[in-house]
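Hi, here's the filled form for the chain we discussed.

Project: internal
Contact: R.S.
Residues: 87
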Amino acid sequence: MKQEFVVANKKGLHARAAAQIVKVATQFDADVWIVKDGIRVNGKSILDVLTLASPYGSKVVVHAEGREADAAMAGLAGLFQAKFGED
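And the returned structure, exactly as it came back:
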């Protein structure tokens, strides 16, 4: 399954937001990938997520595959929709 998100928090996917993505992604038995501008990275690796350099307004596509893919996607969607708890 895949879903597109817009990075809506003003600081973009900085270290704190990336850490939240990794924390949620690692809770589930699913492979999580994030794609931006054709670059695909492991959503369970903070360094990989940071290499996407995704500022405010960026579009990313999250892919989740595996036994708990639905739950992983729901958790990640919640982070993006809540703007990672930021403005």
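Let me know if anything looks off before we file it.
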